[in-house]
Amino acid sequence: MNTINGKIVSVESNGELSLVRMVSTGLKFTSIVIDTQETAAYLKPENPVKIIFKENEVILANGPDCSISLQNKMPGKIVKVESDKLLSKLVVKTPVGNITSIITTNAVKQLDLHLGKNIVAMVKTNEIMLSE
Amino acid sequence: MIDVQLQKSLKAATGDLYLDVEFKIRRGELITLYGKSGAGKTSIFRMIAGLLDPDKGRIDVDEFVWLDTEKKINLPPQRRKIGFVFQEYALFPNMTVLENLRFARGKQSDDLFIKDLIDIVDLGDLQNRKPDTLSGGQKQRVALARALVQKPEILMLDEPLSALDYEIRNKLQVYILQVHKEFDLTTILISHDISEIIKMSDYLIELDRGMIIRQGIPAEVLTNHNISGKFQFVGEILTIKRQDFIFIITVLIGKEIIKVVADEDEGKKLSICDKVLIASKAFNPIIHKID
């Protein structure tokens, strides 16, 4: 589980859903949750929030300028690569801390992901959970 | 509002224990006392019921004083308007279901009320049977009806369902919640079953060695944090298998077995039999109608 400490910037609600925009060390994050200020009191601008996502949900991409729908992008450098038969675990050092990603070993080979390489770690908006 | 302040030196199986608790229960609430054995749960029960005297304390129920050790007020159990259900059913074996209920009624209720109770807990077809011929779940329904015959204001349940299997337990939870609401009861439950606690109670008090260590809304107290994932279950770990950089954890949730993947660092902190909260976002699972 990756956990980043962030701060809520805005909460845009429609019915039961809210799109929460956050910031952590200058990087922007967004999450969509089935909660509003009525059901989760901490969903207010300026409040601290924990931004949580699983290692398996972290997508890695070469280069920062790819046009892609993912809203949560963390540029960084690979500081650890461990590969097994099917899966590999990579640790990316980013401004918001070390982010762990578990992807297939095939993907590691295809993208030539190796120690010291600059990449972008990304997470989909609906994969991010929030906690007080 | 029930206002409870109790202090007592106790001899527990784990050694001497000084029980010192203070809590309030709002009328109509269902609260659970939770904690290891020897934490003092049953002693608190017995003191509220008047079956055990505290060294020092007060119990106020609305404007009535049930107990005030300073003023030497101590109402006897029969004047405290409490109904009990225990793990053992304690029914009279030589009487039918109906006779068991009639025997317990005292002056407060008539046959019409007993009939209502029988309907609510679905004992209509069984009312002329003797307890020996009933299943565990049926006996506990009789015990629940019997606890209500005297029209108590407070219903006290000391692990009433722990001897029953999962499906029966589920049904009885529904019956208990139904009578709790129907009779506007204030209910105090002792339970060890986390899913039961989250499902049934409005408020949780966790005890350890005679002290209240945590209290609040059950899901928040038991999970320590309020996480936004809406696909949440509480379960118990059955197996942990390591594979590549992940752990595959098998968890028993109710009567279903599921598998969940955990990262290495998380997996190392888990062991078999641990109680865990599984949370995912509501966006991920697919839903498939079963014909």
Task: Offer a quick outline of the entry.
The complex is a heterodimer of chains A (132) and B (291). With 132 residues, chain A is mainly beta.
Write the SSE topology.
The complex is a heterodimer of chains A (132) and B (291).
Chain A: E1 2-14, E2 17-24, E3 27-33, E4 48-53, E5 59-62, E6 72-83, E7 87-94, E8 97-104, H1 105-110, E9 118-123, E10 129-131
Antiparallel strand pairs in A: 1-2, 1-4, 2-3, 4-10, 5-9, 6-7, 6-9, 7-8
Chain B: E1 2-12, E2 15-25, E3 30-34, H1 41-49, E4 56-61, E5 64-68, E6 73-74, E7 82-85, H2 97-104, H3 111-120, H4 136-149, E8 154-158, H5 166-182, E9 186-190, H6 194-200, E10 203-208, E11 211-216, H7 218-223, E12 231-243, E13 246-253, E14 256-263, H8 264-268, E15 275-280
Parallel strand pairs in B: 3-9, 3-10, 7-8, 8-9
Antiparallel strand pairs in B: 1-2, 1-4, 4-5, 5-6, 10-11, 12-13, 12-15, 13-14
Helix fraction of chain B?
A: 25-40%
- Arrangement of strands in the largest sheet of chain A: 3-2-1-4-10
CATH-defined architecture of the largest domain in chain B: 3-Layer(aba) Sandwich
In oligomeric terms, what are we looking at?
Answer: heterodimer
- Output the CATH topology of chain A: OB fold (Dihydrolipoamide Acetyltransferase, E2P)
Number of folding domains of chain A? 1
Q: H/E element string of chain B? A: EEEHEEEEHHHEHEHEEHEEEHE
Percent of residues of chain A in helical segments?
under 10%
Q: What is the top-level CATH class of chain A?
A: Mainly Beta
Tell me about this structure.
- The complex is a heterodimer of chains A (132) and B (291).
- Chain A is mainly β and 132 residues long.
- Chain A has one domain (2-131): RNA polymerase II/Efflux pump adaptor protein, barrel-sandwich hybrid domain (OB fold (Dihydrolipoamide Acetyltransferase, E2P), Beta Barrel), CATH 2.40.50.100.
- Chain A contains 1 helix and 10 strands.
- Chain A has one helix at residues 105-110, and strands spanning 2-14, 17-24, 27-33, 48-53, 59-62, 72-83, 87-94, 97-104, 118-123, 129-131.
- In chain A, the strands form 2 sheets. In chain A, strands 3-2-1-4-10 form a 5-stranded antiparallel beta sheet, with no helix packed on it. Chain A has a 5-stranded antiparallel beta sheet with strand order 5-9-6-7-8.
- In chain A, β6 and β7 form a beta hairpin.
- The radius of gyration of chain A is 16 Å and the shape is elongated.
- In chain A, 37% of the residues are buried.
- In chain B, 26% of the residues lie in helices and 35% in strands.
- In chain B, β1 (2-12) and β2 form a beta hairpin.
- Chain B is built from 8 helices and 15 strands.
- By secondary structure, chain B is α/β, with parallel strands linked by helices.
- Chain B has 2 domains: 2-222, P-loop containing nucleotide triphosphate hydrolases (Rossmann fold, 3-Layer(aba) Sandwich); 227-280, RNA polymerase II/Efflux pump adaptor protein, barrel-sandwich hybrid domain (OB fold (Dihydrolipoamide Acetyltransferase, E2P), Beta Barrel), CATH 2.40.50.
- Chain B has a 6-stranded mixed beta sheet, with helices on both faces.
- Chain B is globular and about 70 Å long.
- In chain B, α3 (111-120) packs antiparallel against α4 (136-149) and α4 packs parallel to α5 (166-182).
- Chain A binds chain B through residues 1, 31-35, 40, 42, 52, 54-56, 82, 84-89, 100, 102, 126-132, and chain B through 225-230, 244-246, 261, 263-264, 266, 279, 281-284.
